[in-house]
Amino acid sequence: MNKNRFPADWDGQRVRGVIAHYEEQTEEQATLEDEAALKNQTETVMEVKSELMPVISKLKKEEI
């Protein structure tokens, strides 16, 4: 059996809270959240082909 690993300061309760946030969100709330994220100049949003995500995830794990 695999043991769940969370980033520092994360636990199962926090993960469940994030899941609940997105499951309970309306389409309008999601759109507003997306628009706010795009205006945030301290973050970058980009599109990546889905087939590249496993490679990107692996690179990110190696960085940690």
What is the number of helices?
3
How many angstroms does the end-to-end distance come to?
A: 23 Å
Radius of gyration: 15 Å
| Low-pLDDT segments | none
Helix share bin:
55-70%
Please give the domain count: 1
- Structural category is mainly alpha
Main sheet: strands, sense, barrel? none
Could you give the count of β-strands?
0
List the helices and strands and how they pair.
Layout: H1 12-24, H2 27-39, H3 53-63
What does this molecule look like?
This protein has 64 residues and is mainly alpha-helical. The protein has one domain (12-63). The chain has helices at residues 12-24, 27-39, 53-63. It is extended and about 35 Å long.
Please outline what is shown here.
This protein is mainly α and 64 residues long. 58% of the residues lie in helices and 0% in strands.
Descriptors:
64 residues; mainly alpha; extended
